[in-house]
Amino acid sequence: MLRISRKLLIYLSSGTAHKPVRRAAMEDGAQPVFSFGIIADIQYADIEDGLNFLRTRKRFYRNSIQLLRNATRRWEEQRVRCVLQLGDIIDGFNKSHDTSEQALDTVIGEFEKSFADVHHVWGNHEFYNFCRETLLASPLNSAAKAGNGSDLIADDIYAYEFSPAPGFRFVLLDAYDVSLIGREENSEKYKRSVKLLQEHNNNPDLNHPPVFHGMEQRFVKFNGGFSKEQLLWIDEVLTLADQKQERVTVFSHLPVHPNATDPICLAWNYEAMLSVLRFHKSVVCFMAGHDHDGGYYIDESGIHHITLEGVIETRPDSNAFGTVYVYEDQMVLKGNGRISDKVLKYP
């Protein structure tokens, strides 16, 4: 009841609701159409701090919930329209500690303290903890919140789209549609994934990248790719967005531009996705996680590729989240802590 009352107050108290918008006004006085929160790679676990896979970076497992709390409090003050969580919401270590459900409840509980709808993208750590069927039946399936958009494109592909405001569209992708960790071993997509990895990576442990440098490093077990069905679907969504003259932002756990991430974090068939995105004038931005160092690149089509810095490798005295203010002619990312501010002009 308390949460419902707070939501009603937000909508009824128009003066309060407009204050953050006035603070976000551009120098020319333009007001944003809406704003949304963005965060990636929380990887919460109630365990002691540790190191990353290569043992080169410290990971702050327990403290990541405090950094999420910092973010949700700020978003509540700013009255964001919605929040995009870009995957790896809890860490894979929860599985071996038999705490996956408990950890997920903790993080979801923190998100639910905010009035804003949260749209969840799935990353590799979601699949370390849960099978696809379980995820589809969990709070991490946020497709029902799309409202004026579409439901899932297929029973087993977690991708959907919706319009957060007239003239704008958000598309969430399933970057583990074709993968080893995101598919059952008896499925066709799993078998195709095994074949693809073995063609590019002869290591016994497929989590280790191939010895070749460059783009081949992406062929590892903790990555994945997009099926033909998903590529056809997003092409259709973007074609309609072109016709409606909408501005589209695409969200994925895996980045798809090699200049916006380390090659080891790229989607397997990133080139196929890039070719679809570049064909459509409606696409203005592609946001991803996975690479905890973050990255940014504006490609030749004018699409902004943003890879968000990961919460899990952010020191307790810093932060790693952003608020994006959406205007008629551009978006403005206001970063916190490790995430820098960016002005994202539309192509």
UniProtKB/TrEMBL annotation:
The EC number(s) this enzyme carries: 3.6.1.13, 3.6.1.16, 3.6.1.53
Summary of subunit composition and partner proteins: Monomer.
Name of the protein: Manganese-dependent ADP-ribose/CDP-alcohol diphosphatase
Keyword annotations of the record: Hydrolase, Metal-binding, Zinc
Calcineurin-like phosphoesterase domain segment(s): 36-293
GO molecular function, one term: 2',3'-cyclic-nucleotide 2'-phosphodiesterase activity
Reactions catalysed according to its record: CDP-choline + H2O = phosphocholine + CMP + 2 H(+); ADP-D-ribose + H2O = D-ribose 5-phosphate + AMP + 2 H(+); CDP-glycerol + H2O = sn-glycerol 3-phosphate + CMP + 2 H(+)
Family: Belongs to the ADPRibase-Mn family.
Enzyme class: hydrolase
Cofactor: Mg(2+)
InterPro entries cross-referenced by the UniProt entry: Calcineurin-like_PHP, Metallo-depent_PP-like, MPP_ADPRM
